Amino acid sequence: KLVSREFKNEDTVLDIGGVLVGGSHLTVMAGPCAVESREQLLESARIVKEAGAQFLRGGAYKPRTSPYSFQGLEEKGLEMLAEARTVTGLKIVTEVVDIQSVPVVSAYADVLQIGARNMQNFQLLKAVGKSGMPVLLKRGIAATINEWLHAAEYVMSEGNYNVMFCERGIRTFEDYTRNTLDLSAVAALKNLSHLPVIVDPSHGTGLWKLVRPMARAAVAGGADGLMIEVHPNPAEALSDGNQSLTPKNFQEMMREVGAVAAAV
Ligand code: PEP
Ligand code: MN
């Protein structure tokens, strides 16, 4: 299989407009759960850029559990992301939730995010494969590593080798945390596949207090990068405020993971 170490032994390093993901680079993708307003997004972008991240994250199409929750600003949100890229130079990673919006999201983003809920949406995987855009493939909420590898294979089988995995926690019996962050998946994937592996301790734990320690652990365990939710004012966030870091906590996290990366 294309995803496997048997097909390609050396680590894949993605070049996303000059930003390298994989190899010895630690890539940080950070920003709010959702794009809420121009002010909120530009402020978030300024914060994550200043702290040293390479990517701005933020959902314009939000896959919410309830249809009555904030659903995202859609194309208006994509425009704001593109403006934030112009202002800061950050690359943009944002979720695409269906086949119809692959072209519009591709027009604004640098990386297409496939959310956990869509990891086995095979038609969508084929569509992002055909788009040729770099893809961040989140782990399904109850997906095995084998199923996740096959999902990446769907993208690659369309000729698109620009794929990275993102561990974001899985559902277990534990309900103190939102999900159970499976850091063993990082080492497992690094053994099985040549593709980069990103860890998202924000969705992985659901609790901002656990994000910094799990970010440190992810880097110590061989992750190629982190995806982190940061909000200028988490208490006011329209989604995932409980797991979002304040600007100050994010700065501290960046300092800590820099030290861990230098030590391992
Ligand atoms: C997100 O990153 O905003 C998100 C919805 O994550 P997940 O698909 O992992 O739940
Ligand atoms: Mn979120």
TrEMBL record:
Alphabetic keyword roster: Transferase
Q: Where is the DAHP synthetase I/KDSA domain?
A: 18-255
Write the signal peptide boundaries. none
**Is the keyword Transferase in the record?**
yes
The record's Gene Ontology biological-process terms are:
aromatic amino acid family biosynthetic process
Record's superkingdom? Bacteria
Query: Which GO-annotated molecular functions does the record name?
Result: aldehyde-lyase activity; transferase activity
Protein name, UniProt field: 3-deoxy-D-arabinoheptulosonate-7-phosphate synthase
What is the species of this protein? Sporomusa malonica
User: Which region of the full protein is contained in this chain?
Assistant: 70 to 333 of 338
